Amino acid sequence: MLKEFKNFILTGNVIDFAVAVILAGAVGLVVNGFVADIMMPIVGHFAGGIDFADMKYVLDEAVTGEDGAVTTPENAIMYGKWVNAIINLIIVGFVLFMIVKAYNKSKKPAEEAPAEPAGPTQEELLSEIRDLLKK
Predict the structure, then answer these.
(1) Is residue 22 in a domain?
(2) Per-residue tens of pLDDT for the chain, all 135 residues
(3) CA distance 5 to 26
């Protein structure tokens, strides 16, 4: 069983998958940084200075004690974070689309196999058989 597991782990597909997962994590960090630090301020600027991450619908206000400490935290629907996630998804999708498009463009077009010569038709074969029978 250990030998089978070793063969499974050392196959090219598993190693390729592991490398892809690690790269995806690194690319995810870069894309999230790009979205949060570059794109969202631009989107917020054109949306009238709104920071989507702070948008929320408060269900219950926070309750503070006499000493100013929060005794019951605020209960709110943070829909602005959801808007940020949708914008992030659109940007990531576009980046992946561009990467796949560039990859497909860089691949060599598949060479078409030469067409096999067409064999004799059924009528030709029958006429050959007829001629052979006549002889």
Answers:
(1) yes
(2) 888 877 777 776 777 788 888 888 888 888 788 877 888 788 778 878 777 778 889 888 888 888 888 888 888 898 888 888 888 888 878 878 888 888 888 887 766 666 666 777 888 888 888 888 887
(3) 28
Spatial distance between the Cα atoms of 90 and 71, rounded to a whole number of angstroms: 39
Domain that holds residue 47: 2-105
**Residue 111: what residue type?**
E
Which domain CATH number covers 63?
Answer: 1.10.1200.120
- The pTM for the full model equals 0.52
CB atoms near residue 40 (< 10 Å): 20
Considering the domain boundaries, does residue 61 fall inside one?
Answer: yes
Split into its structural domains, the chain has a count of 1
